[in-house]
Amino acid sequence: MSYLNTKPLLYGLEQSSIKEDIILSTAYPAQLAAALKDQSIDLALLPVAAIPSIPNAHIVGSYGIAADGDVASVALFSQVPLEAITHIYLDYQSRSSVRLTQELVNHFWKLKVALLPAQEDYIASIQGTKAGVIIGDRALQQLPNFPYVYDLASAWKAWTGLPFVFAAWVSNKALPAEFISAFDAANAMGLQHLEAIVAAHPFPAYDLLHYYQKNIHYELDENKRKGLDLFLKMISANHG
134 and 142 in contact (C-beta within 8 Å)? Predict the structure, then answer.
């Protein structure tokens, strides 16, 4: 994925010796899930809601994209408070954010709202009682523009007490232990060079160093995996 939050992980893959062992390409999450399914790729940084759709899925290594509280870049944006919202546009760039929104709407916020598929230019339609979920770089840009911003990772934490994992490295087959070890080391390398990564990606809308150090948690520790397991249980239960 080519969002700003993936840059620290990509940095290590591009700069370390593992680049000799992989062919690296970027695509939208939906394209990555399709490519994993048809086995045209072996490994992808995938929104976790797509994991149940991948046959023989393995979570690879110790890194991903998570948050323990405010993530800043995945939020519900509105002109009115939560209880006054009647419609929510869903940003289809991320299946995980859409599924997280559905769980929060139904079981935590308990809202009676219509969920609408978002068109390309849907941000302009977020007005009156129509709210919208915006993710990624666009969400960071929109933070100052709405009076009501409900951070989805923060809402999940308030509801469950656990961190939320948005994306993990997922393969469609078992990979060799020595590759996984080198892959983890490459992921870790990017996290040692956050200042260089920020300097290489000017982004006036938001303090990226704060984003990388405070909002995004890259290491999938035991607590993150508990949050991930709970979310996967929820979405499989609600899909029959």
Answer: yes
DSSP code for 240: -
Do 148 and 87 fall within a single domain? yes
Residue/partner pairs of 177-182 with CB below 8 Å, 24 or more apart: 179/21, 180/60, 180/61, 182/16, 182/17, 182/18, 182/21
Last residue of a domain, one of 144, 160, 176: 160
**Would you give the DSSP letter of residue 19?**
G
Among all chains, which residue has been given the structure tokens 């995945």?
A: 74
Residue count of the chain, please give it: 240
Based on the domain organization, do 50 and 85 belong to the same domain? no
Give dist(CA 15, CA 12) in Å, integer.
5
pTM of the model: 0.94
Question: In this predicted structure, what is the pLDDT of residue 237?
Answer: 83
- C-alpha distances (whole Å) from 18 to each of 26, 82, 182 are 17, 46, 7
Confidence of residue 240 (pLDDT cuts 50, 70, 90): very low
Q: Say if residues 61 and 98 touch (Cβ distance below 8 Å).
A: no
Distance CA 140, CA 204 (A): 10
Of 160, 193, 226, the position where a domain reaches its end is 160
Total structural domains in the chain? 2
| Cα–Cα distance measured from residue 128 to residue 19, given in angstroms and rounded to the nearest whole number | 49
Helix axes of 222-237 and 95-103: crossing angle, nearest 10 degrees: 70
Q: Name the phi and psi angles at 63, rounded to 5.
A: -125, 155
DSSP state of 206: S
From the number of C-beta atoms within 10 Å of its C-beta (0-12, 13-18, 19+), residue 119 rates as: exposed
pLDDT exceeds cutoff 70 at 39: yes
